[in-house]
Amino acid sequence: MSELVSKEVHLVARPEGLPTVDDFKIVETRVELKPDDILVKNIYMSVDPAMRPALSNSQTKLNEVMAASAIGKVLESNEADIPVGSYVFHRFGFREYVALPKKDLEVITAENESITTHLHVLGITGFTAWGGLLITGELKENENVFVSAAAGAVGSIAGQIAKIKNCRVAGSCGSDEKVDHLLNDLGFDYAFNYKTASISKALHIGLPEGIDVYFENVGGKHLDAACGQMRPLGRIPVCGMISAYNNKGARSEGVTTLSNMIYNRVTMKGFVVYEFFERKAEFLSDMRGWLADGKIKYQETIKEGIESAPSALIGLFRGENTGKMLVQLAEE
Ligand SMILES: NC(=O)c1ccc[n+]([C@@H]2O[C@H](COP(=O)([O-])OP(=O)(O)OC[C@H]3O[C@@H](n4cnc5c(N)ncnc54)[C@H](OP(=O)(O)O)[C@@H]3O)[C@@H](O)[C@H]2O)c1
Question: Which fold has domain 5-119+298-328?
């Protein structure tokens, strides 16, 4: 195994605007195993919108392998609690094989579920939806909820959690097929295509009494429209601003409706999923229960092979995914 060659993705040019595949390069390297390392063959990796701003600053180094959440299978190990054949989660995706010390690996204990779910509904994006809505957003039963990027990994789960809490839920997305998916597969009360509809008019129709919680994934025009329609004591958990991520410094379009925060005493609060980690067991118990009861459904968009990883990342900004965008690097 010492001569094992792995293909990996390097960033070779800092993109301006939407990245192109030419900003990335597939490079072959030899995998070096230190004495206590565990050798992992990566099976699936995640691409995430937050990777985009990091391509434009020093967080992602040029001409080095990029980082991503991934799930792999252990090929060589001397650790009794990480045996050969077990599945592990780690943050060293964008490569086919990786040799890592035990401390960088988390064994996945799958309970009748696909291992891919640990990269979305039972992983970071599901946890983000759960914590953002219930903790940061302080969601209450029977409220009026708006979710943007609602057909994506975080948004689709946030909207369904709000339905479980008996809320009226409206979602925005970028195609008529996704509108159908939200209404007919995921049980949203109202959905619209923000590329063809006025966001503000659609929200008046979908949530005529106004919005108690706006789960913010997009920023810009979405925030402008939603902020103006927030109800008294409304909350805006700010999860992401994907409409801004291709702009220099991730600067969003201007928002003109902030005065409504005063009139209606609205709270807008940013969050990152890591702040919820002490409540992970509670999240997993809720989510596994909802999955078992059929109350949460999920979809995956899977691209094949390490060569497709750059286009999968770019595809997030073209709306090519419904549910979670993953890259499959090897057979399970
Ligand atoms: N705070 C945290 O800890 C945390 C953790 C994870 C994710 N996030 C954030 O959550 C948001 C969703 O992430 P995700 O992983 O679930 O991605 P995702 O929603 O699965 O994929 C991104 C989606 O965003 C939509 N989109 C792309 N460009 C857009 C634009 N200019 N305007 C409106 N919509 C656009 C596309 O769908 P359409 O076809 O609908 O346009 C695309 O499918 C992102 O903002 C991300 O940064 C935050």
Answer: Quinone Oxidoreductase; Chain A, domain 1 (3.90.180)
Does the beta carbon of 55 lie inside 6 Å of ligand 1? no
Residue 49, both tokens: 């919108």
* Distance in angstroms (rounded) separating the CA atoms of residues 19 and 164: 37
User: Count of CB atoms within 10 A of residue 227's CB?
Assistant: 23
> pLDDT digits over 266-319, tens only?
999 999 999 999 999 999 999 999 999 999 999 999 999 999 999 999 999 999
CA of 116 from ligand 1 middle (Å) equals 19
DSSP state of 189: S
Q: How far apart are CA 191 and CA 207, in angstroms?
A: 10
Q: pLDDT tens digits for 105-139? A: 999 987 788 999 999 999 999 999 999 999 999 99
So where are the chain's domains?
A: 5-119+298-328, 124-275
CA distance 6 to 290: 38
User: CATH classification of 124-275 is 2.40.30.90, yes or no?
Assistant: no
pLDDT score at 41: 98
- Who contacts 246 (Cβ-Cβ below 8 Å, separation ≥6)? 15, 17, 18, 19, 52, 317
H/E stretch holding 209 reads: none
For 118, the token pair is: 């640990």
Mutate to test the pocket of ligand 1, among 116, 173, 242 (most ligand atoms within 8 A of CB): 242
